[in-house]
Write a structure and sequence with these properties.
With about 180 residues, this protein is α+β, with helices and mostly antiparallel strands. Helices cover about 30% and strands about 20% of the residues. The chain has a seven-stranded mixed barrel. The protein starts with 20 loop residues before the first strand and ends with a helix. Keywords: ATP-binding, Hydrolase, Nucleotide-binding.
């Protein structure tokens, strides 16, 4: 008797599924090899998260991006959030279980500050990309860290004993 394949569990997104989610990206390693029209198409259109999205990558659906004039390349290492464009022109955002690029050019890389956001999106949700500089990406991450630090300090001032109690309990777990 053949066992039935496991049904995929549908994730629940913390974002309004009817709203387009704006994701900031920096230039990818092959960014300069893409034509200006392709880069404009990448940043001006909305992409839908495909039902084939998984821990390896979020496959996107939209108007295909042209890779006709991008030269063939060797496979190379990748980073979380790298956005590769295979020959079919449908971008793939590489996620936690990603592999090498497989010779596909990388047009952009999701800003570190937006990685948790894009990772929580579910099939059917719509995203749009905004190009930012590396400096802007670093500043956005620094701003987020400062906000989190401020929240922690506010919590510690309001509830110093609760914070200490929790820390003590957690430290006991590691003894």
């Amino acid at each position: 008797m053949i066992a039935e394949p496991e049904k995929r569990k549908i994730a629940v997104s913390s974002h309004d599924t009817d709203q387009t989610v704006l994701i900031r990206v920096t230039e990818g390693t092959q960014f300069a090899q893409f034509e200006a029209e392709t880069i404009t198409a990448f940043t001006n259109q909305q992409f839908k998260i495909s039902k084939n999205a998984d821990r390896m990558g979020l496959r996107l659906e939209g108007q295909p991006l042209s890779v006709a004039n991008v030269p063939e390349m060797l496979s190379e290492a990748t980073v979380a959030g790298g956005i590769q464009v295979p020959k079919n022109g449908q971008p793939i955002v590489l996620m936690a279980d990603r592999q090498t690029t497989g010779g596909y050019p990388v047009i952009g890389v999701v800003a570190s500050v937006d990685l948790p956001t894009i990772a929580q999106l579910v099939p059917g949700q719509v995203v749009r990309f905004k190009m930012i500089s590396l400096t802007q990406s670093q500043q956005a991450l620094a701003d987020q860290k400062a906000q989190l630090k401020q929240i922690k300090q506010t919590f510690d001032v309001l509830n110093p004993k609760v914070s200490r109690k929790t820390a003590t309990k957690i430290s006991r777990l590691f003894r």
